[in-house]
Amino acid sequence: MSFPTSFIGFSASNEEVLPKGGTMLVVRTAIIMTLFIGLLTIAGCSTNSGVELLGQSRSAIEPSQVKLVELAPAAAEPIAKITSNFSYGVRETDESKRSYAIERALVQAAKLGANIMVIDKIEYQQTTSGGVTGGLYDGQTVSAVPAQRTPVVHATAYYLE
Predict the structure, then answer these.
(1) Cβ(156)–Cβ(72) under 8 Å?
(2) What residue ranges are annotated as transmembrane (predicted)?
(3) How far apart are CA 151 and CA 130, in angstroms?
């Protein structure tokens, strides 16, 4: 079985398929810009959330069983340092964003089997502004998303017998 070497004005030879001269530069630039924009998009969605194990984790418990205290008892065993934030979506107040970040830290502590959590520090980071596009073709809208403060909660999870 043989295949045609050209189809509707396109040839199978390398000389005719690849763009020549300045056109190739435009194609390369477009590819590089697309990759760069993709990387910026991914970086903009990054988070500071994380867990650093300090000791033995236990079986997971319900988040409602984790007690939030100001100071851990001397007998409590440290399990992990937890960093949690809330940087997705737009919340109305710093307090609601902070509450959600603390709730996320409590969920992480519960997954590690910690029954006590101490908040070591809460700091705020400034996010960048951007735009959100909605709709398909006709009737498409663009909404501005303003820069906002993002709370970052640093806590220590403990287990107390």
Answers:
(1) yes
(2) 25-45
(3) 19
